[in-house]
Amino acid sequence: MSNCTLCQTTGGQLLWENDLLRIIDAQDPQYPGFTRVIWKAHVAEMTDLLPAYQLMLMQNVLKIEMIQRDILQPDKINLAAFGNMVPHLHWHIIPRWRDDPHFPQPVWAAQPQADDHARDRQALRLQAIQARIPAYHAAIHSMMP
Does residue 145 belong to any structural domain of this protein? Predict the structure, then answer.
């Protein structure tokens, strides 16, 4: 589709792709490791895919979740496939920490006020996670066929 952002652009830092899908780092400064698995063909819903493709897409989403758990060690991982703003099939895999700016709300919620202590904790956590991002990206490359 000509006016679709995910048809026109990569959608972030490309980590891996094949003929059917691509995996990108969304490069969200508050959520390092925020990853998307994007189906390349312009479809809106999982049920637009043949069952074998549905399974393959979800296997890749779950691979990313496993790598995040192993390398980034978040407190929780959020999986989401909304497509409300960009009706092109893609999955968000978002590592979450109890002290992240939105926790326990979704990352798209209004950000609550944080005190200086909370901001300092968040800054230290971000530095520690950023240091693991190269290993996370390398693990994605090594896990993909």
Answer: no
* pTM across the whole model: 0.89
Please check whether residue 39 is in contact with residue 56, taking contact to mean a CB–CB distance below 8 angstroms.
no
SS3 20: coil
CA distance 62 to 86: 22
- The Cα 59–Cα 18 span in angstroms is 14
Tens-place pLDDT, residues 17-62: 999 999 999 999 999 999 999 999 999 999 999 999 999 999 999 9
Asked whether residue 143 is assigned to any structural domain, the reply reads no
In the chain, the amino acid numbered 115 is D
Count structural domains, the chain. Answer: 1
Number of Cα atoms under 13 Å in the Cβ half of residue 116:
0
